[in-house]
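Throughout this review, each integer encodes one residue's backbone shape. One record appears below.

===
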Amino acid sequence: MMKDWLRKHPDVRTIRVAAADLNGQARGKRIPARFADKVVKDGTRFPFSVLIRGIGGGDIDDSPLVFEQGDQDGLLKPTERGFMPMPWLEAPTALLPIWMFRENGSPYEGDPRHALRAVLEKFKARGLTPVCAIELEFFLIDDSGKTMQVPASPRSGKRRKAAETLSIRALDAFDTFFTDLYDACEAMDIPADTSTSETGLGQFEVNLMHCDDALRAADDAWLFKMLVKGLARRHGFAASFMAKPYPEYSGSGLHTHFSLLDSEGRNVFDSGGPKGTATLRHAVAGCLNAMHDSTLIFAPHQNSYERLVPGKHAPTAISWGYENRTSAIRIPAGSPSARRIEHRVAGGDVNPYLMLAAILGAALTGIEDQEEPASPINGNAYAVEGLPQIPANWESAIDALEGSSIVPRFLHPELIKNLISTKRQELHYIEELSDSERIELYLDTV
């Protein structure tokens, strides 16, 4: 199948093989297309340490993977996704997603995609299949000058320096970009659905259709972020999924909706009414109980915590509610057959594989333990006193993950250790940068 794709696209001259590192950045190689068959058959190799990089791209100083273990290679094999075009590049090019294995063929525990696969295996053992949909917010930014600003409209040449929530005019102003984006999603088989303008300056949201393959849903989100950033540059401006580019505007979230199907294809959250089943409540409780300790996965960078402030459309309290967007967990209204959980904590700057592994893994712990959540919140969750809080700063979130007893139930200890080391080094690195240098770094990397 993979070889057939290239034969049907003889104009492709080079391929990229790429895996997601802990920060969600693509790491890999450029290979002439005539050598692609070898990669498909034998895979490729690069060091285990490549998936555990600092945000600036360098080694993690205290990582045993580098000098202590001789910086050994892992084996990278193609994922089931196969080849796809890279429409943001001028020359015809194909992308081949890959993931890392040990020499004996076992999955490498530090690979974020394998972290999600391991969680899904636990659901499979219980006869359950997660169905996931992801909503991604991002900013279009003119970063050509000393300060960032909304790009000029390709239609009018004007800059609209105001928030435009659900504005058709704002979407039409960048119609050329969005038309190319949807065409590119079609070519890459990314199920892009509705797009809207959001509350930030030049901010938009695109929803990806629900999927009963959570690995594929995470692939779609990872590939979509890569596509949006690359295509925007081709249009003469930047696109960024950083959590908070502008202090005065709301930040970008990456919200996840999920339900669970049993072996008969029935939604186990559907009670026939608006409240959902006991299984839904158990899943909610699991998500809430793990939320404090896993915040670093949902808010992985210094800039992430500028989004998580009261009254700015991002949750700060560990709470849930029915049809309540001020809470961290929302149960949307609608048909009982579509009853689902919306997890609203993550920013746009997350690694989608780790995010889904943390959300679904936490939900499964609640189901396994048959936990019950506290009462759902009515009204403004920001104004409710006494609610447990999401860590308010980056260092506290790192400490919370390091001391957690619940996160190791669904993430491998090696991955947790690697993530903590990566974030502690990033924290010290970021402290040495000016505010403008931090913004510039995150603008292009996350």
Observations:
- Residues 2-108 form a domain with the Ubiquitin-like (UB roll) fold (CATH 3.10.20.70).
- The first helix runs from residue 2 to 7.
- The chain is about 35% helix and 20% strand.
- The chain has two domains: 2-108, 119-445.
